[in-house]
Amino acid sequence: MEKLTELEKVxxxxxxxxxxxxxxxxxxxSVICNMLNLTPHLLIEPNRHELVNSIEFFNYSxxxxxxxxxxLKTSSKEKVASDYTLPSNLKPYxxxxxxxxxxxxxxxxxxxxxxxxxxxxxGFYKVLDLRNLxxxxxxxxxxxxxxxxxxxxPVEQNFIYSLLTPSGTLRWASFTHTQLRQWFSTPGQPEPIxxxxxxxxxxxxxxMPYCNALDFYWHKxxxxxxxxxxxxxxxxxxxWHSKRFNGLTVSKNNAGETIFYCNPSPKxxxxxxxxxxxxxxxxxxxxxxxxxxxxxx
Length: 297
Hints:
single chain, alpha/beta, 5-stranded parallel sheet, 12 helices, 7 strands, 35% helix
């Protein structure tokens, strides 16, 4: 009988119907999900209503969820708990796998997070320790890239390349209003200049709904809209990818120029469609966005 590795032993013990408070990153969990033949559905900062509807009942779209929480706190007094806390009485559906990564962008677990996880452990909550199992914390290598490629690109291409790393996606949350007008929402320019100059035109159909929503959020932190796009590209490349659909790739064309190509999977396209349908939460989806959504679905 073939001897199992420590990682294989840990994975073999995982069962549906529990919430795993994971001492590990989203990317490590994507490896775990692949070993379990699961396609995870990423819930970013879900509120109480979203958690209950996704986790506690049979879900037609997915039986595996990775929860990226806004805050990991719990309270025995529900009246003082935030709408974004993880309820201590959350009961996952019996066939659903649920993971909560506790290692974020800073590659560390804070004392407050450890304390909150310890207070939640028990019942349907279990701690999953992915440390010391030989898993890279952020195992990122651009797919289909050649050894001659380096991140020493022009400014515009560096912004596209940053979509491949967790810390890089945060750069998309810090654009100034001037940069937004210069690169993404330029009067008289129908397509974002940054993607044209970066030779990443295959991303244009996917970013356009976000660019068109910038003016709607101009006085409500418009860069947060582009962060949503950045997270989608990142997940398309590292979580929802497959052999045929690699998400964002970087390579060289016949002229020796660095180019970016986006080939999202059906799962990634579905998540994109869901996200852009929520860009205008207080008003109906504009006809322009509806047209773009229908074109890519």
